[in-house]
Amino acid sequence: MAFTSNAKPNQSGCGYRELNTLFHEGGHAAHFANVRQNAPCFAQEFAPTTMAYAETQSMFCDSLLGDAEWLKTYAKDENENVVPDEVIKAMISVGQPLSAYRERSILVVPLFEHKLYAMDEDSLTPESITALIRETEKAVLGVDVASRPILAIPHLLTHEYACAYHGYLLAHMAVYQTRAYFIGQYGYLSDNPEIGPALAKHYWNPGNSHTHDQTLRNLTGEGFNPSYLAEHCNQSTDSAWQEQTERLARRNKRLKNRGVR
Length: 261
Ligand SMILES: [Zn+2]
Prior knowledge:
The protein contains 11 helices and no strands.
């Protein structure tokens, strides 16, 4: 597997977004490089591999980038100054209130697709499809016109990825379930040496010989559960900040005990 990302923070145009690409695609690489089965069919991206299962691995990795734990350790300026609390607080206060809206922005795509593909062929006109888009946006997002045009999302245009967009939302549910499991077990995520081996054993090694749900059961002891993502979306800005600082403190304490900075 190969990917490119100019994640060199001191180069213009190569900031947070590229770092996100590095972590996201790196997560896919870690996954597919660690499938340990006796045939290549267990480690490819087509069925029975699901997009939700594959994206869980990459989105788990890129989810770490928004954590105060990670930011406080790695986000430094050219003079090695650690990112100030105020900046992290500002990131949370900008992002947290939009959490539910962001998940709904994913949901609006598969709901629209579902209705579109169920439409009678004779009634498919530019006007009827536009009306369906507006109706779905209103129902799911509560706005008259969404800022991201549904038909411009590339997944709809390439036939092999049509009807797959819900995979991102399912993956996000699994990511938050996985995060909650690890936080419950160890109190923190960033630089936690227990996480890689656990993911390798339960999520990566079986490849697509296990279903997504099975992999979650094997790691967390619980089947697919969307309530962790819902909890995250319902958190207030203050409680999100509070939770982040607690995890940061636990991480520092655990790593100090291990002799790691
Ligand atoms: Zn991906």
